């Protein structure tokens, strides 16, 4: 624990967290001491965001802070875990960039506040801008949403809308800088679906967050569960403004293959679907049916073309066409 | 959780850890699920090691892997925590450096094995070589060794020997490459004092690991505890080979100011000293008395000179000379 980070943490959290936040000894000692909830599993994950790789270096500093935390919290959401704590490894190019850092911290801290996540440690090093965020959350042992629970007959559904991450990136690369544009907002300020993950405990049989692209992440679920899927691609909910920005064909490509959406893809037994949809509606979030889990491995309803994997989208589906070997993982 | 890291983790731990390692769901899902021990505090810390800053880029890959984990585990040792789990954020310059990575993993994994630490997650990004390691350990609430418990009359003592980190770095910079040299071994393969931390539970009133240099870290304890210290600098245990390599004066400078020793500096009530020393002796480790905790803030026994802080060392001490403002923090 570096002293420079103690200052930063104080900047982030002027009021030291206490036992109500599960923190029995805060930043400033060799370790932080946390009080996990008895009987719960501790869900942990780490994601590192690198400038120029995972986000544009010229993105607004507040968005960089928000996004670095959001992509890690999205993994907690996908487990149905409640967010509790995080640690940050910050690599900064220069020591004297106060205004940038203040904005960065504001974006990070605002998402901490909004999600009930407490920053409990970190360090600062010098180098190319990169932010590693370790997140810790809690979930009852029997209620964790894994990738391995999908069963034939389950409905496949996604929260929110797809393609916004890829669409926003495309707009950014074209020079669009209006942060109020819905696609840029989706790309720069992704919303981890923590509330949805909690609401789907006991209802969904499997879940994953859509970070690599819907088909790739669906492939992970199918592989983990030993099943296949029939997709209804025309049912994919498209992010607001996506068709206007990219055109219909590219919009659907973005929804199928684009990454960085951070929605949840879930498998839900039909008997639970209405309840699941109702709970998410109460939270202002759509849950859209996009297919079914089937016995036979692979994905039906889309066509595989060429060596790059899933290339072309056929709105009508092609049941006999495109199941990739091994379930599109 | 990136799929590339799943492969790496499998490389590291070919046998998936199970519930005996407190892992109820291993790497390969959105999060890993851990089973913390009921009634214990979870001690967490993160440290990032950057090539060219925290270690020489040309250091042996196995040493880089070992060292990156060791510096984080040292923080658990200083809390008296038992090491349980770790996550790694690895930034690698190139994707195809297989032999380097195999050695790196061997060094990291060997220290995991030796300390009972299970790698439970991580990610890999491309960029300048850097390794961020988040560690998690456990300690009973009342037995954590903080920086804030030192009381006047306590003995100040250090485990092992000092100056080896700075001495080893000096040798490396002079071109010494014999890894069997005791100072290079100290610098490249620091040993986190986890067993000492466990043995000192219930005996030490305060502890810190010597990462920034003895005086700097002593300052942290004094500040945390609201006390001062009288040092007996001639009592400092010097690392094997240090005087021969650096000469007497620089050796003592290295012991006082050098960083990267990763020994424990502890405050121990006199009534517990013999027991503490006996327990460490059973583990093959010396515990050397180097001073006393006193009421009056500051550090006596060494002389402060110039603006850079603690500069010069006087073997005979200078009780009236050098208490810095605010306790040498």
Automatic annotation (TrEMBL), chains A, B:
Keyword tags: ATP-binding, Kinase, Magnesium, Metal-binding, Nucleotide-binding, Thiamine biosynthesis, Transferase
GO terms for biological process, alphabetical: thiamine biosynthetic process; thiamine diphosphate biosynthetic process
Binding residues for Mg(2+) 1: 47, 123
UniProt keyword Nucleotidyltransferase, yes or no: no
Domain PurM-like N-terminal: 28-139
Region annotation Disordered: where it falls in the sequence: 310-329
Bias (Gly residues): 318-329
InterPro entries tied to this protein: PurM-like_C_dom (IPR010918), PurM-like_C_sf (IPR036676), PurM-like_N (IPR016188), PurM-like_N_sf (IPR036921), ThiL-like (IPR006283)
Binding site for Mg(2+) 5: 212
Segments forming domain PurM-like C-terminal: 151-302
Reaction(s) the record says it catalyses: thiamine phosphate + ATP = thiamine diphosphate + ADP
Residues the entry annotates as binding substrate: 54, 260, 310
Positions contributing to Mg(2+) 4 binding: 30, 45, 75
EC number: 2.7.4.16
UniProt pathway: Cofactor biosynthesis; thiamine diphosphate biosynthesis; thiamine diphosphate from thiamine phosphate: step 1/1
List of residues binding ATP: 122-123, 147, 211
Family indicated by similarity: Belongs to the thiamine-monophosphate kinase family.
Leftover remarks: Reaction mechanism of ThiL seems to utilize a direct, inline transfer of the gamma-phosphate of ATP to TMP rather than a phosphorylated enzyme intermediate.
HAMAP family found in the cross-reference section: TMP_kinase
Role noted for this protein: Catalyzes the ATP-dependent phosphorylation of thiamine-monophosphate (TMP) to form thiamine-pyrophosphate (TPP), the active form of vitamin B1.
Protein name: Thiamine-monophosphate kinase
């Amino acid at each position: 624990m570096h002293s420079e980070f103690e200052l930063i943490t104080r900047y982030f959290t002027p009021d030291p967290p206490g036992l109500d936040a599960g923190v029995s000894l805060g930043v400033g000692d060799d370790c932080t001491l946390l009080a996990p909830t008895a009987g719960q599993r501790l869900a942990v994950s780490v994601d590192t965001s690198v400038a120029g790789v995972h986000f544009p270096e010229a993105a607004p500093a507040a968005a960089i802070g928000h996004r670095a935390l959001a992509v890690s919290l999205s993994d907690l959401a996908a487990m149905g875990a409640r967010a509790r704590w995080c640690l940050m490894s910050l690599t900064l190019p220069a020591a004297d960039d106060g205004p940038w850092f203040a904005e960065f911290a504001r974006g990070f801290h605002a998402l901490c506040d909004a999600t009930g996540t407490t920053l409990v440690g970190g360090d600062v090093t010098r180098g190319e801008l990169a932010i590693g965020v370790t997140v810790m959350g809690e979930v009852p042992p029997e209620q964790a949403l894994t990738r391995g629970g999908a069963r034939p007959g389950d409905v496949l559904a996604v929260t929110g809308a797809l393609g916004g991450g890829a669409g926003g990136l495309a707009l950014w690369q074209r020079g669009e800088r209006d942060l109020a544009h819905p696609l840029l907002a989706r790309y720069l300020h992704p919303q981890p679906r923590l509330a949805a993950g909690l609401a789907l405990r006991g209802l969904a049989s499997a879940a994953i967050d859509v970070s690599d692209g819907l088909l790739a992440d669906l492939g992970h679920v199918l592989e983990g569960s030993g099943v296949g899927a029939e997709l209804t691609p025309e049912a994919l909910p498209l992010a607001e403004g996506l068709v206007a920005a990219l055109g219909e064909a590219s919009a659907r490509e973005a929804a199928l293959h684009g990454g960085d959406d951070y929605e949840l893809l879930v498998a839900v037994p039909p008997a639970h679907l209405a309840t699941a949809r109702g709970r998410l509606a109460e939270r202002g979030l759509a849950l859209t049916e996009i297919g079914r889990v089937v016995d036979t491995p692979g994905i039906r309803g889309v066509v595989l073309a060429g060596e790059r994997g899933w290339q072309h989208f056929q709105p009508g589906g092609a049941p006999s066409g495109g199941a990739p070997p091994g379930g599109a993982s």
